[in-house]
Amino acid sequence: MPRDVNIDRIASYTLRSGVLLSVSLIILGIILIFVKGEASGYNISQISDFHNMTINSKIISLSFSGIGAGLAHLDGFYFITVGLWVLIFTPISVVVLSIVTFVAEENRLYLIMAIIVLFNLFFAMLVIPRLM
Amino acid sequence: MNPVMSSLLFIAAKFLSIVVGGVFAGVLGSLTGLGGATVLVPLLTLFYGVPIIYATGASLISTIATSAGSASAYTKQKITNIKVGVGLEIATTTGAIVGSLTAVEVYDHKLQWIIYVIFGLVLLMSLIPTVQRGKYEVPQDRKADWSSKLFQLAGSYHDARLKKQVNYVGVRWWLAELIMFFAGVISGLLGIGSGALKVLGMDWAMNLPMKVTTTTSNFMIGITAATGSSIYWYEGYIQLFLAAAAAIGVLLGSFIGAKILVRITNKDIRWIFFGILSFLGVEMLLKGLITDRILIISSALEVAISLIAAVAMIGGLYVKNQRGENIAS
After folding, report:
1. Contact, B79 vs A107, CB < 8 A?
2. Which terminus has fewer CB within 10 Å in chain A: N or C?
3. Which A residues in the span 97-116 are in contact with B, Cβ-Cβ below 8 Å?
4. How does A107-126 read in b/e, with b if 16+ C-beta sit within 10 Å?
C-alpha cells in the first residue's frame, strides 16, 4: 500500500525561506556596493549604468572558489549573485521535494516525469553554457 | 555637498526609482493576473530607457521571486495540484530552453525590434482571455478521457468562498502539454512568466477549476523562469544592480497587490488596469516597428495612437463582457 506523504507544508516553508534568504542576500549586496562604492573592481557609477553592456552576470565567476573569494572580500556583486542563485534554486527544490513524494507513493510515472523536469533544468544550467 | 556624496545620492535615487517601478509593476501584475514581469519589461524599456536585454533579464528574475513568494501561500492551502504542475513542466522547461536560445540568436543578430513586436502582441493577446476569464469558478463537468486516468488528473480542494469541497477531473493532458510548450517558449523569449498562456492551457484544455489553474500556473512559472534565467545568466543578460532593484520591487508590489485584490469589491476598477496594460502593449508594438524604421512617426503621435488603440480595445472588450453578463443574468 503506497503511503500518502504530505509535502505541501514543507514545500511552502521551503519557498518562503528561499525567497527570504535570497532577498536578504541581495539587499546585503546592494548595501555593500553603496558602502564601499565599488564591487569586483568597478565603481558604483559603472555598476549602476544600464547602458554598459559589459558589466553584467557574464563577469561573475560561478566556481566555488570564485564565489568563496568574492564573499570573503565582501564583494557586493557576489552577495547579489548568491542571492539570485538561491532564488533560482528555490522553485527547483520543490521539484526535488515532489520526487520524494512520488517515491514514497510509488508513483513511477510521475517520478520519471519529475526527473525529466530536473534533467531539463540542469541541461539549461550545465550543458548549454558549455555548448555556447 | 561634495561631488562624491551627491553622485552616491543620485545612484541611490536611481536604485529606489527602479524599486518603485517594480512595486508598480508587481501591484498591477497581480491585480490583473498577468504577473509583474509583463508590466515590468514595458515599464523599464519605455520609461526608464533600459536596454530590452537587461529589462527581460531583470524581469525573469523578478518572476521567480513573485512565483515563489505567492506559491508558498497557495501550496499550504492545498489548492495547487503539484502532479499537474510537474507533468506540464516537462513542456514548459523544454519550451523555456528553446525560447531563451532563440532570444540569444535574436540579440546576437541585433534584432531587438522583433522582441518588442512579439512582446506587444503577446501582451495584447493575453489580455483577451484574462479579461474574459473568471466567470465560472468551477467548470462544467466533462467526461474523463484516457489521459485523465493515465496521468491521474483527478483532484479536490476546499473552496473557502463556496464553503465546500470541490472535486475535479482534468482532461486532454496532451493538449495542455502542447500549449505549455508555447508558454515556455514565450517565457524564455520575452523574460516573462506567461501565466496567461499557462492558465489557458489548464483552464481551457484541461477543464480544471479556476483556483487550481491560477495557483498551479503560479507554481510552474517559477520553474519555467528558473530554466530561462540560467541561460540568461551565462549570456550576460542579468544586470545585477537592475535585477536586484527589480526583484525587490516586484516582490513587494505583488504582496501589496494580493492584499488590495481581496478588498476590491467593484470589479469595474479592473478595467482601468486592463486599459493601462493594453496601452503598454500597443506602445511596445509601435516601439518595435519604429526602431526598425518600418514606421516613422513622432513620439507624440506614437503615444496618441497607443492611447486610442488601448481605449478602443478595452472599450470593445468591456462592452462585449457587459453584454455577456446581461445574457447570463
Report:
1. no
2. N
3. 98, 101, 107, 109-110, 113-114, 116
4. beebbebbeebbebbebbbe
Domain count across chain B: 1
Instruction: Identify the burial level of B271 via C-beta atoms within 10 angstroms of its C-beta, where 0-12 means exposed, 13-18 middle and 19 or more buried.
Output: middle
In this prediction, the answer to ipTM > 0.90 reads yes
CB–CB of A77 and B240 under 8 A? yes
Domain range enclosing B308: 13-322
pLDDT digits (tens, 9 = 90+) for A48-80: 999 999 999 999 988 899 999 999 999 999 999
Q: What are B202's three cell numbers? A: 489548464
> Is the CB of residue A84 less than 8 Å away from at least one CB of chain B?
yes
What is the distance in angstroms between the Cα of A128 and the nearest Cα belonging to chain B? Answer: 7
Q: Are B19 and B249 in contact (CB under 8 A)?
A: yes
Higher model confidence: residue B117 or residue B127?
B117
Half-sphere exposure of A102 (CA within 13 A, CB side): 21
In this structure, is residue B318 part of a structural domain? yes
- Domain limits of chain A? 8-131
Average pLDDT value for chain B:
87
For residue A49, which amino acid is it? D
Is B21 inside a domain boundary?
yes
B5 located within any domain: no
